[in-house]
Amino acid sequence: MKNIFLILLVLSFIAPSFGQRFATDPKKGNNTGSALTYAYLAPAYSATTTITPNASFTIVKPSAVSGALNISVTDTKSQIGDELQFMLVSTGAARTVTLGTNLKGSATTIALDSAQVGTLRFMYNGTDFIEISRAKE
């Protein structure tokens, strides 16, 4: 019994940690990508929408944007390097989407024409989500 306990104790120190998303030392940590997680959120339209991402890559596609939209993000479960992508579809008329205070980018809004699709992509730096790209079609 002591041998089994000793083996388990030793393995707990040398086995890769699957609680982290990236290895801190490529020779010792989990660099397989097995700890990466993905999420898809589809919140119902609301004039103010708050998202709490808890995956390494989260896609957010609210139901059709049928009015002005304010998006804010709670980053309590985010880790450095996490990515957040919004897919926004305007319906009926031109719409303006306003970004919350911890979504930092080239502009605090994105204007969508009627039936236009817009995408915004961010990466978490430990404090804020920093814009990587934006596009409209």
Structure summary:
This protein has 137 residues and is mainly beta. The protein is built from one helix and ten strands; from the N terminus they run αββββββββββ.
Fill in the keyword field for this structure:
137 residues; mainly beta; 6-stranded mixed beta sheet; 1 helix; 10 strands; 9% helix
Measured distance between first and last alpha carbons: 65 Å
Main sheet? 6 strands, mixed
Catalogue the unreliable spans. 13-19
Widest β-sheet, arrangement of strands: 1-3-5-9-10-7
Number of strands: 10
The assigned structural class equals mainly beta
Radius of gyration: 20 Å
Output the number of helix runs.
1
**What is the helix fraction of residues, given as a range?**
under 10%
**Percent in strands:** 35-45%
The overall pLDDT, averaged over residues, is: 81
* Order of helical and strand elements: HEEEEEEEEEE
The protein's oligomeric status is single chain
Shape: elongated
Give structural notes.
- With 137 residues, the protein is mainly beta.
- A hairpin with a 4-residue loop joins strand 9 and strand 10.
- The protein has one helix and ten strands.
- The strands form two sheets. Strands 1-3-5-9-10-7 form a six-stranded mixed beta sheet, with no helix packed on it.
Helices and strands in order, then pairings?
Elements: H1 2-14, E1 38-41, E2 48-51, E3 57-60, E4 69-73, E5 83-89, E6 95-99, E7 103-104, E8 109-112, E9 117-124, E10 129-136
Parallel strand pairs: 1-3, 2-4, 3-5, 4-6, 7-10
Antiparallel strand pairs: 5-9, 6-8, 9-10
